[in-house]
């Protein structure tokens, strides 16, 4: 027997209508068809298996890569009345969970791919009634995916043994190669692939050349209310930056990386999930298992691994659909190091890695729309401007620096391709220091050929040349001519420079949780915080900010009216409704 999905959507989840392709995906699942759903973070992927789990007879088995992610989703499921459990290495109630599965007392069961691919788990499922297999983070199936997990590729025998049970693969990030591989590995037909698009219009993208990173990150954190994640490139950098930001004292800052003791990592992660204001400085080991919808900003303190990685990591901001920001701080040395690492790879992988670096170069170098660069990478045809990235909001000037670039490359060549930027600047600007004089570089034809306004362009020009592989670095950090230098020196290729806009004070209004300074909204947040503390769950599990804002605007006068607020389902109305209604009624006396 199948229950009506629209009724479940309203009564259980509190939503008046499906979003995007949710209905299309759910209809296929309820028809028993195998499906791959590619939906951006925040588009409601979990609803696409949670609702069918309630609508169909039997239990939905959810295969998920991380225990932290499973437990976050368990909390959210329990909050709306879904019978859910997990079988993981940290769950002590595994016997009870297995008995509940056999009795038909579970709607959802979360397991890791390593368990799901084993014969023991298959034997357990033979004793159960199954409604659906949901394979979350399905890009992990693919060797082209950026978080490859071998056991994901061992799931096919499990799925095929229970071939009558529909399978639903879900991911937010999959390029064309990855999509094809997922379909093949999981036995899903081409007509079962549903792509909702990759755009996250609520995220404002901004890219900045590094120029005093500590100050830049400090200014960003000071200007951004709400929780945030800063991705540093090394373990040591996470701790150093967290310490620096923590000295400000205006909010709590913690660090997270794989080298920490497990209990410290767990404590920091739990504190971040529960907080409405904490900043986490982390390596990319942090985030994939965080189902936290109210992250207001994500910042990368260095170049990410790829466009796919950047899209997924920056996409951890604004999962609730509220305004959020993604900032990327890059340096030319990031590209130089990335290219050096390519030379250490086997030949078959080098072309693909060069393409990844080129795609990142296009993202940071463009004077046009950042969002358009991202979306075109995933095969979409976006408009030329988005109106919500740094370049669209404040178009930067673009100047021709071909002559300065040729002078710089000539200086690299004539000084022997072994010196760093500081020495080359001294030579080009005619600065006679001891190092220049000792090497006779004050007698070169390039000595003193740059002056005035051109001198200020040398550093950004060097970044641009490194970006386009006209310069590379040797093992000692000295600058060397790269493959792209010849065409510039011969006058066959021009070099244009996008000048970053001058720094302006950041306007916080509109990004805050309470942009109109409504005191009732603050009172509702306090009520939510108290209830969350009492229940031992993060505040967002009770209600999102958008639900509280609608309460403050509508001001319902009874429980029936409160139940019509978006996000207030039957279980949450029963559990929390009176407390929020009392807060509203007290405010209106």
TrEMBL record:
CDD domains: DEXHc_RecQ, SF2_C_RecQ. Signal peptide: none annotated. GO terms for cellular component: bacterial nucleoid; cytoplasm; replisome. Residues 26-192 form the Helicase ATP-binding domain. Keywords: ATP-binding, DNA damage, DNA recombination, DNA repair, DNA-binding, Helicase, Hydrolase, Isomerase, Metal-binding, Nucleotide-binding, Zinc. It catalyses: Couples ATP hydrolysis with the unwinding of duplex DNA by translocating in the 3'-5' direction. PANTHER family: ATP-DEPENDENT DNA HELICASE Q1 (PTHR13710:SF105), DNA HELICASE RECQ FAMILY MEMBER (PTHR13710). This is DNA helicase RecQ.
């Amino acid at each position: 027997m199948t229950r009506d999905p629209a009724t479940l959507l309203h009564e259980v989840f509190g939503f008046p209508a499906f979003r995007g392709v949710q209905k299309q995906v759910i209809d296929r699942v309820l028809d028993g068809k195998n499906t791959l759903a590619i939906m951006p973070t925040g588009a409601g992927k979990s609803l696409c298996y949670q609702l069918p789990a309630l609508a169909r007879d039997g239990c939905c088995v959810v295969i998920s890569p991380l225990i932290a992610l499973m437990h976050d989703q368990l909390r959210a499921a329990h909050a709306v009345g879904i019978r859910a459990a997990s079988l993981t290495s940290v769950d002590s109630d595994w016997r009870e969970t297995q008995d509940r599965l056999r009795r038909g007392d579970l709607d959802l069961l979360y397991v890791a791919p390593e368990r799901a691919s084993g014969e023991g788990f298959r034997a357990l499922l033979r004793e159960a009634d199954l409604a659906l297999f949901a394979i979350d983070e399905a890009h992990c199936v693919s060797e082209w995916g950026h978080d490859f997990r071998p056991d994901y590729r061992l799931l096919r025998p499990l799925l095929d043994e229970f071939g009558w049970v529909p399978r639903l693969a879900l991911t937010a990030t999959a390029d064309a190669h990855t999509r094809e591989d997922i379909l093949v590995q999981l036995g899903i037909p081409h007509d079962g692939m549903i792509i909702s698009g990759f755009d996250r219009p609520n995220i404002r993208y901004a890219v900045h050349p590094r120029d005093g990173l500590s100050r830049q990150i400090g200014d960003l954190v000071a200007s951004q209310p709400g929780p945030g994640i800063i991705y540093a490139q090394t373990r040591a950098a996470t701790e150093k930056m967290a310490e620096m930001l923590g000295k400000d004292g205006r909010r709590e800052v913690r660090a997270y990386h794989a080298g920490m003791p497990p209990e410290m990592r767990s404590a920091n992660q739990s504190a971040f999930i529960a907080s409405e204001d904490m900043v986490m400085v982390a390596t990319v080991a942090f985030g994939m298992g965080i189902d936290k919808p109210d992250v207001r900003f994500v910042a990368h303190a260095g170049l990410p691994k790829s466009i796919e990685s950047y899209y997924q990591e920056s996409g951890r901001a604004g999962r609730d659909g509220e305004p959020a920001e993604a900032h990327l701080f890059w340096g030319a040395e990031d590209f130089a190091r990335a290219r050096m690492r390519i030379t250490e790879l086997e030949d078959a992988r080098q072309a693909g890695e060069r393409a990844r670096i080129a795609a990142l170069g296009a993202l940071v170098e463009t004077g046009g729309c950042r969002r358009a660069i991202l979306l075109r990478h995933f095969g979409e045809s976006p408009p030329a401007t988005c109106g919500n990235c740094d370049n669209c909001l404040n178009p930067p000037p673009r100047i021709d620096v071909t002559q300065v670039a040729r002078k710089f490359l000539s200086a690299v060549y004539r000084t022997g391709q072994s010196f760093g930027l500081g020495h080359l600047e001294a030579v080009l600007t005619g600065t006679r220091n001891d190092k220049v004089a000792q090497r006779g570089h004050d007698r070169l034809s390039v000595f003193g050929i740059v002056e005035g306004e051109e001198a200020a362009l040398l550093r950004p020009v060097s970044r641009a040349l490194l970006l386009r592989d006209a310069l590379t670095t040797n093992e000692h950090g000295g600058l060397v001519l790269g493959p792209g230098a010849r065409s510039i020196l011969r006058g066959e290729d021009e070099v244009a420079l996008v000048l970053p806009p001058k720094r302006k004070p950041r306007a916080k209004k509109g990004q805050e949780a309470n942009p109109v300074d409504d005191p009732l909204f603050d009172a509702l947040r306090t009520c939510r915080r108290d209830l969350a503390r009492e229940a031992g769950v993060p505040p967002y599990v009770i209600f999102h900010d958008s639900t509280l804002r609608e309460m403050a605007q509508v001001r319902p006068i009874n429980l029936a009216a409160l139940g019509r607020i978006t996000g207030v389902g039957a279980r949450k109305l029963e559990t929390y409704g009176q407390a929020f209604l009392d807060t509203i009624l007290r405010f209106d006396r």
